[in-house]
């Protein structure tokens, strides 16, 4: 609350997305990323790569998918 020339002004901002919704969106993005990582790791392993290589490929797929999903969710939340 701030005072402006003897009057009190109350600034109220209404958050369209509460904290629970944001947490659920991040959890959904992480779940989709985990599925993409598993698929990528399994496909690389079936192709004959070592376990370490499959783990690195899966972790790269997880990271890139998570970044992309969070960026898309952020853009959609703000409205194109």
> What integer value in Å does the Rg equal?
21 Å
Low-confidence stretches: none
| 3D shape | rod-shaped
The number of distinct β-strands equals 2
Number of helices: 2
- What is the CA-CA span between the terminal residues? 32 Å
Explain what you see.
The protein is mainly α and 80 residues long. It contains 2 helices and 2 strands; from the N terminus they run ββαα. It has helices at 19-46, 51-78, and strands at 2-4, 7-9. The chain has a two-stranded antiparallel ribbon. A hairpin with a 2-residue loop joins strand 1 and strand 2 (7-9). Helix 1 runs antiparallel to helix 2. The two termini are 32 Å apart. The model has no long low-confidence stretch (mean pLDDT 89).
What attributes characterize this protein structure?
80 residues, mainly alpha, 2 helices, 2 strands
Ordered list of secondary-structure elements with their pairings:
Layout: E1 2-4, E2 7-9, H1 19-46, H2 51-78
Antiparallel strand pairs: 1-2
In short:
By secondary structure, this protein is mainly alpha-helical. Helices cover 70% and strands 8% of the residues. Strand 1 (2-4) and strand 2 form a beta hairpin.
């Amino acid at each position: 609350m701030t005072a402006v020339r003897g009057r009190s002004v109350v600034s109220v901002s209404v958050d369209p997305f509460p904290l629970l919704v944001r947490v659920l969106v991040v959890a959904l993005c992480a779940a989709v990323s985990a599925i993409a990582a598993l698929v990528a790791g399994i496909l690389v392993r079936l192709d004959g790569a070592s376990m370490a290589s499959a783990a690195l490929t899966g972790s790269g797929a997880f990271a890139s998918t998570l970044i992309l999903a969070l960026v898309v969710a952020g853009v959609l939340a703000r409205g194109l």
